[in-house]
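Practice problem: predict the structure.
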Amino acid sequence: MLKAEVSPFIENNESSVFSSQQLYWLGKAKAFAEAIPLEDIINADTQNVFRRDLFEAACQEGFGDLPFPTTYGGSGGDYVSFCLVNEEFARCCVPIMSSLGVHVLCQEPIYRFGTPEQKDRYLPLSSSGKYLAAFGLTEPGAGSDTAAISTTARLIGGEYVLNGTKTFITSGGVADYYIVMARLAGFDGLVDSDARSITAFIVERGFPGFEIGQKFDMLGMRGYSTCELVFNDCRVPKDNLLGQPGWGRKVALSSLGKGRVTIAAQATGWAQGALDCILRHLRQGHAEGHLDPAMGGLASLVGELAILVEAARVLTHQAARKIDNGDTDVVLAGMAKVQATDTAMTVATEAVSIIGPHGINPQLLVERIFRDAKAGQIYEGTNQIQRMLIARHLLQ
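Answer:
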């Protein structure tokens, strides 16, 4: 495959900005990404097939549990390292990138809110890659509003009975367990529609009443087995309650804050990958004598794109460092997600325009970045919603 160029920011600041441990993980990510044949990357996208073998191989390298302590098999890394890995994987369009991000997103609430028994059951197997996790929050009628979910749960005897549908669930069709949000009927005297009744559960694929629904053949973010989850009197053991009744929004939002930083890192990688392709195209044209990139407004445009990419990267790393310091700043995470995904869309669009017809050649990966970047502006809270939340925080 085409070897990705090193970001000028990373190349020029390795000794002063990143620790030896962070550079270690970056090096591992580069080696892993560059070992994947370009044909495999293209096929995962065109055939919309999830590569479980690559996922398990990545977990064996320590990427699937990188920011977690070693107590339950984690890699003991930090969130900046995880961002560097995600950026590198996205820049090279590694087929399992998004699934790894969601996999980490799902382990987070088990570490924070899980019982010792839940941690023993799910975390070591997740660390090894034998278990793959998915996050069941989005619903057909709820979109980005966590308070609008309609999936219900009722405690009947020693089991919770879940009914409802989740949609556009990354890794949904291949996951082994799911972090699921539902409204707990009759909780604390609240009406079912009260957001304070939302509760989190760990649902295993084999639980009675659980089904995989529609599988999506989407424009972007292909190869991640994105689908619907259907709960039809799904019986969940009482021991699989995650946290306390009514803690669902707390569980979801604490995880999504970090998840948006992960998406920002991925989007920065997409943007860098598209910029790399522009630079290769211009250098080749200059070498062949039929293009001078310094002429006209083209050089100015490339400079502007480079500024946008570095701004996204710095904002993403700032949010990641706050996580490593024990402060998951959801507002800063939202800012990073918006900046990075909008930048990825801008750079990918300009890349297709500058390169011309060759820009839609799958082997350049630009057209895939273009499609994935549009999805990045939408999932885990649309950029429009993120801007509203940022403004609301500033106005308080």
